[in-house]
Amino acid sequence: MEIKITKNTAPKQKPTDQSTLGFGKYYTDHMFIMNYDEGQGWHDARIVPYAPIQLDPAAMCLHYGQEVFEGMKAYKTVDGGIQLFRPEKNMARLNVSNERLCIPLIDEDFCVEAIKKLVEVDQEWIPTQPGTSLYIRPFIFAIDPHVGVHPAKHLMFVVILSPVGNYYPQGLNPVDIYVEQNYVRAVKGGMGFTKTAGNYAASLKAQDEAEKIGYTQVLWLDGVERKYIEEVGTMNVFFIIGDEVITPELSGSILSGITRMSVIELLKSKGYKVSERRLSIQEVYDAHEKGLLKEAFGTGTAAVISPIGTFEWNGKKITVGDGGIGETSQMLYDTITGIQCGRIKDEFNWIQKI
Ligand code: COI
Fold first, then answer.
1. Whose Cα sits closest to atom 9 in ligand 1?
2. In the chain, what are the domain boundaries?
3. Which member of 38, 198, 270, 280 has the greatest number of CB atoms within 10 A?
């Protein structure tokens, strides 16, 4: 499919201070759009000036949340090149989400190419300071003007770009996490393994309550027994207990993070013992009691590697290690961001250059 490009004739002023980019505050001059109509498939791929999208008030996405999205990043390398980190994995995961939400599958290779083209058009927006990148947000939503509950026959695939800094204002400094006991994010058989808006809507109440008492995010436990660790608000989670690095196994209610996958591969290549297994919150607290809980950190595209300083569960607050940035967390952050920005040789074949 051809991608038609219409250039923005009124480009915006780019943010001048890269140290205050934050996350998701600025959007570039262009966006990618293609439409799906039953009988026709995906068609009309185009890059157009960034602008509001007109929707019928009855558009199904507004009523029943038939929506999926992805999060990925483009980086400027030290020699001025542009690169993406494992974009094919994001497009494959988008199709996993599509399948669960009855959304027509996309052509993964074509979508990677479309994203590359869009990033190329808006390349002047890619920030260059350490810790910054161009966040890429592909999303698909149902637009049929129909308030009956059925899979849509008409959808839009859109990609927008946002120059970003750290997801958390504290940067790489450890975050404080509240272990959620009242609310549930997802259960097996539900949509927890997909990237769909509803999962994040389900998390807002707990997140809001945790923030009000001073926590950055919540740690979700399994929705049935409320014992086993699943994931943190916008990240997968890892614990280092003794000499074992543990992350919850992908049980059906956990997002299969691309940073998670990369951290596992990287740690294994360096000889770490990594287990993907069931891990109860009690086991973490017991390990802390015995002095074995060395590090905990979250992983995600937006959050990269985010060390965890404290947990509160059942009224008891514990500090992980010495409460600072652990050695392994720092190594992972340096290596992953080093590969992403071209400072470290990519021995894993994770990078796609534009
Ligand atoms: C990402 O890490 O890219 C995400 O999609 C998390 C997000 C909800 C900020």
1. 302
2. 4-165, 175-346
3. 198
